[in-house]
């Protein structure tokens, strides 16, 4: 049976963050009277993520969890999205840098403007100067190459209709799944929009973005562009 909204939470070694995020998500998403679900994807975690999820599932019936043994943000996200039964699918990072309340604002815009895809546009960054410079360069180059007008390509939460997900055939197994969503939306000619949000500093765990991740972004961007 379909529900109104499915939110996917990919998580690699985010046990402490999940203890805070999931209760906040449950409280926030309770406004969806036609039903919602939270699908947490344990992406090859080696900390107490499994035990944390076992406890959270007992507290909150709307929470499900699946295990993805192979590392990769895109791989984990796709595992969760394929499990989702909502008429609208979406995801939020497990690091508590974005408020779950933004999901409601993004959903409202997606519905009000009849969009296929709607995402966050971060108005501030809390991940260091070098990431800020790389991000600005990457986003500018991406918009020029793919003629996408939206800013902050990797901004999340991201929401999209189940119809878009089924037709887009997303395939990126790494961090490039974020830009792939907008590339596919542009190619399919569907409407996409964004909502400005504020972000917060990560308080627990460590960022999974490394220099190798940045290189993967640029490599994948040129690979898609040359098709």
Q: How are the elements arranged and paired?
A:
Elements: E1 3-11, H1 15-29, E2 36-43, H2 49-59, E3 63-68, H3 73-83, E4 86-91, H4 101-112, E5 117-122, H5 129-146, E6 158-161, H6 162-168, H7 177-188, E7 192-197, H8 211-225
Parallel strand pairs: 1-2, 1-4, 2-3, 5-7
Antiparallel strand pairs: 4-6, 5-6
SSE series: EHEHEHEHEHEHHEH
CATH topology: Spore Coat Polysaccharide Biosynthesis Protein SpsA, Chain A
CATH superfamily: Spore Coat Polysaccharide Biosynthesis Protein SpsA, Chain A
Q: What is the percent of helical residues?
A: 40-55%
Poorly predicted ranges (pLDDT <50, ≥5 residues)? none
What CATH first level would be assigned? Alpha Beta
Total domain units: 1
The beta-strand count equals 7
CATH architecture assignment: Alpha-Beta Complex
* Strand content range: 15-25%
Alpha carbon gyration radius = 16 Å
- Main sheet overview: 7 strands, mixed
Structural class: alpha/beta
Tally of helical segments: 8
Distance between the termini: 38 Å
Q: Output the strand order for the largest sheet.
A: 3-2-1-4-6-5-7
**If you average the pLDDT, what whole number results?**
91
Choose one word for the global shape.
Answer: globular
